[in-house]
Amino acid sequence: MAEQPTDGVGSLFFELAGDLRLSMLAKLSEKDYRLSQLASELDATMQEAHRNMTRLIESGLVSKGREGELVLTSYGKTVVSLVPSYDFLYKNREFFVDHSLGDLPTKFVQRLGAFRECEIVHGVMAILQRWKTLYNGSDTFIKEIMAQVPLDLIETISERVDKGVKFSYIFASNAVVPKGRTQLLQKVGWRNFISKGMVERRMLADVRVMTIFNERQGCVMFPNQKGEPDLNVMFYGENREFLEWCSDLFDYQWQLAGTFDEGKLKREV
């Protein structure tokens, strides 16, 4: 039997290692419970519930209220708020063996729990189709951070902009643009959209974590271990917390980005 850590963060992880204790904390994050109610909800015996709850109370994660109800302490609430991020990383551990978080700031890594309800989309064609659906489903805005430029989606985007959807995007200065892009942008009146303020754009030296989102849905793509964009796997979500994560990342990168310089883009040979 493993020796229980008595000090440091190891002691906290030890307390979180029990499935029943984790389930108890998750339930208490929703509302206060009496021990008998908690045991019943989690299909545990009173003896099991009492033993595990005693450990949670002794560790400072839970306390008893005035009428004997069990409540998360402030410390407990903070710890529970971080559990979804570890849960997401654990469930996707095989993905992160081959992929990295790129240059993602720590404050975004700590919020990866926002991805816990995301759907994983596999395959370039399936991902491009999902992008097209996202663009077509936009009523107010589309925002994106991109390292690559898919030519066949420009007309889809321009149709939405023409109907009043504002498009804001950040490109990597080392992005490779496909042949025919300049002519297609001229055809759809891209310069006119920019002059009217319906399209705004900025540029970063490098883009590793890509995102596209609108008011209802979003997606994120992480780079491979070399830091290169990977269009074979994508996390797609619609919940508020995930969309806030995408929006905050965009705002963060927008502040860092500089003026868009068309001349820096690499042309496909």
Question: How is this structure best described in words?
Answer:
This protein has an 8-stranded mixed beta sheet, sandwiched between helices. A two-stranded antiparallel sheet has the order 1-2. A two-stranded parallel ribbon has the order 6-12. Helix 3 (35-41) packs across helix 4. The mean pLDDT is 91. The longest helix is centred in the N-terminal third of the chain and has 18 residues, at 74-91. It is 44% helix and 18% strand. It contains 12 helices and 12 strands. With 269 residues, the protein is of the alpha/beta class.
SS element count, helices: 12
Radius of gyration: 24 Å
Q: Write down the secondary-structure element order.
A: HHHHEEHHHEHEHEEHHEEEEHEE
Report helical residue fraction.
Answer: 40-55%
Rough outline: elongated
Structural class: alpha/beta
Average of pLDDT? 91
Strand content: 15-25%
